[in-house]
Amino acid sequence: MLKIAFDPIYIHPLPEGHRFPMLKYELIPEQLLHEGLISKNNLFTPSLTSEEVICWTHEKNYWEQLRDLTLPAKEQRRTGFPLSTQLVEREQRIAQGTIEACHYAFQYGVAFNIAGGTHHAGTNWGEGFCLLNDQAITANYLLNSKLATSILIIDLDVHQGNGTAQIFEQEQRVFTFSMHGANNFPFRKEKSDLDIALPDGTGDEEYLQILQQTLPGLIEQQKPDFIFYLSGVDVLATDKLGKMALSRDACKARDQFVLEQCVKHHIPVQVSMGGGYSPNIRDIVDAHCNTYRVANELYF
Fold first, then answer.
1. How far apart are CA 274 and CA 93, in angstroms?
2. Engineered SS bond to 86: which of 13, 75, 94, 140, CB 3.0-4.6 Å?
3. Total domain count for the chain?
4. pTM here?
5. CATH number assigned to the domain comprising residue 93
6. Residue 140: pLDDT band by 50, 70, 90 thresholds?
7. Domain membership of residue 42 as a residue range
C-alpha cells in the first residue's frame, strides 16, 4: 500500500504571503484521490517528533530557541518565517511524518511525505523556509534505532542540500548526494559527499544523462540499506526560483530512474517532496503527482 504522510497543519500556520506555493500540500492528495490512485486509507496523520529525537540532529540550544519562540530576530529572518508555536508544531509533524513514512517504506518498499525536504536547516540554524531537517532527523533516528547502518540521501532539488551536508559532514554512515543548480540559493554552499553543480539552463538530455551515469555506481559503491529521496520539482523550466530547463516529462523520468534503482537493489526509500515554485500551481501539482504515479506503477 502506498502510504503518504499528510496533515492540514502543513499549510495553515503559514503567513498569507507563503500560502500559494504551499497549496500543493492540499492539492496533491486531492488530485491523487480524484484519479483514484489512492484512497483516504493511504493517508496518515503524523504525530509530533520528540525533543530527544530532534536533538540527535539539531543542537539543543537551537531547538529550545525554536520551542520557546526566543530565536533571535536575525535568525528568524534567515528562515523566511515569523516564528510561532503553530509553525514549530508544523515542523515537528513534518519530521515525524518522515520518520513514520520510513517504517512504511520498510514494509512496502516506498513511502512518502507530502511535505518535507527541509534540507536547508543545519545543526543550529534554520534557512530558506526550513527550521528542522526532516530527512536528517530521520536518518539519525534510523541509525540510533539500529534500523539502518548505511544511508544514502539523494537530493535532486534545484537548491543544494546545504543543511543536510553540514549535519552529516563527519558521519561516515550517511552519504549525501546533491545535484543542483550551481547559481541557485544557497549562495554559500556546504560540502556534500558528492555535489554535482549544474549550469543555468541545463535541459532534459544533459540532466538525465548525468544522473544515469552517476547514481548506479554510487549505489554499488555505498551499498546503502536505506535511501532518502528529495524529489523537488523546482528543476522545471517553468519554476520562478530555479534556473534549470527541465520538462515535466524529464522530471518524471528522473523520478522513475531513481525509484527503479531502489527497486533493482531492493532498498527501501522514503520520499519527501521538496521545492516547486512555478507560477501556475498546476505545473507544480502535476509534476509532484508524477512522482506518486511512478511509485504506484513500480511498487504496487
1. 15
2. 13
3. 1
4. 0.96
5. 3.40.800.20
6. very high
7. 3-299
